[in-house]
Amino acid sequence: MFALAEAARGDIDGARARLDWLAAHRTTLGALPEKVDGRGRPVSVAPLGWTAALVTLAQSAAEAPLPIPPP
Q1: pLDDT (tens digit, 0 to 9) for every residue of the chain, 71 residues total?
Q2: Other CB atoms within 10 A of residue 47 CB
Q3: How are the residues of the chain apportioned to helix, strand and coil, as percentages rounded to the nearest 5?
């Protein structure tokens, strides 16, 4: 969520730093963990669809502005 907000406001470096952190803390199967412990290890491996969706949106927003729905 923070990476998406950063990308949407134009802070591409901040968004990429958060996305890189997420990528570095994936499980051995490549899933994004629900939690990471103090040592940086995934402690809950439930795949979360909303996390994956936010990562996809953040990556897209870092490349080009996302469309804004009409009021």
Answers
A1: 999 999 999 999 999 999 999 899 888 888 888 888 999 888 876 667 888 888 999 999 999 989 888 88
A2: 13
A3: 50, 5, 45
What are residue 35's DSSP bridge partners? Answer: 44
State how far the Cα of 65 lies from the Cα of 39, in Å rounded to an integer: 35
CB count in 10 Å sphere of residue 51: 16
Residue 35 CA, chain-centre distance (Å), reads 13
Q: Give the residue among 69, 68, 54, 53 at the shortest CA–CA distance from 6.
A: 54
